[in-house]
Design a protein that fits this description.
The protein is α/β, with parallel strands linked by helices. It has helices at 19-28, 48-55, 78-84, 107-124, 136-146, 160-168, 185-193, 223-234, 238-252, and strands spanning 3-8, 31-36, 59-63, 90-99, 128-133, 151-153, 172-175, 199-201. The chain starts with a strand and ends in a 6-residue tail after the last helix. The structure holds zinc ion (2 copies). Residues 7, 9, 37, 95, 204 line the site of one zinc ion.
Length: 258
């Protein structure tokens, strides 16, 4: 089985002590590629995921300012992002978006930093990885007004209506551990209605571990659990689901590696 973890934070401090072992377990579990998300500790260090991608042939990276860190962005934040977007192993800009649940940055700042980065992605012609929490309507409005191109809704936790809106906009839906949670019926329904060629898998490690690891530190090897759940939702063998989602990732992101 070949899987892709399209969204993980392996630069996180929680992996400082055993990162090598975590990566080995991922490979042993069939995780063919991992996309390391470059938001890290904030805009002062935009290369945190690239450092991982430079070390391993099966790691790719993103760069971007997370909505939580929007208030830390300065006018100097964006030029390096633009330069780093042309790095051959940087496949996407993200995760960017809006988070009105935590509100760690003021909402108008989140919106302006989001828009600025949508413009960068459009210029670079690379996809965006979207984080949206309790901000669905604003996220879709910003996308419609400021973006044309490909993208991924990461850790998709909406229901079928939101899924349809995202799909109509041409985006992919990436499902994580939440898909395995008992109360996530609307998320499973969203996963059921989406075309197979728009589905991706992710862990968002170290966050949101799937059942039966829920509450523990998440890691890419646990992607297998989410893959099994998604295969069951779709009524197809897990090997087929793995092959389809891997192909989707390759088609969407790997064509930018040249
Ligand atoms: Zn996120
Ligand atoms: Zn994330």
């Amino acid at each position: 089985m070949k899987l892709v973890d399209s969204h993980c934070h392996l630069d996180d401090k929680q992996f400082a002590a055993d990162r090598e072992a975590v990566i080995e377990r991922a490979r042993a579990a069939g995780v063919e590629y991992m996309m390391a998300i470059g938001t890290g500790d904030g805009p002062q260090d935009p290369e945190t995921a690239i450092r991982l991608a430079d070390c391993y042939p099966f790691f790719y990276a993103t760069v971007g300012v997370h909505p939580h860190d929007a208030a830390k962005a300065t006018p100097e934040t964006f030029r390096p992002l633009r330069d780093l977007l042309s790095h051959p192993k940087v496949l996407a800009l993200g995760e960017i978006g809006l988070d009105y649940h935590y509100d760690f940055s003021p909402r108008d700042t989140q919106r302006s930093v989001f828009i600025r980065q949508l413009e960068l992605a459009r210029e670079a012609g690379k996809p965006v990885v979207i984080h949206t929490r309790e901000a669905w309507a604003d996220t879709m409005q910003m996308l419609r007004e400021h973006y044309t191109g490909a993208g991924i809704f990461h850790c998709f936790t909406g229901g079928p209506a939101e899924a349809q809106e995202a799909l109509d906009f041409g985006f992919h839906l990436s499902f994580g551990g939440v898909l395995t949670f008992p109360k996530a019926d609307p998320v499973r329904e969203a996963a059921r209605i989406a075309p197979l060629d728009r589905l991706l898998l992710e862990t968002d490690a170290p966050y949101l571990a799937p059942v039966p690891y829920r509450g523990k530190r998440n890691e890419p090897a646990f992607l297998v659990e989410t893959a099994r759940e998604l295969a069951q939702v779709r009524g197809i063998p897990v090997e087929e689901l793995a092959a389809v989602t891997t192909r989707n990732f390759e088609r969407l992101c790997l064509r930018y590696t040249g």
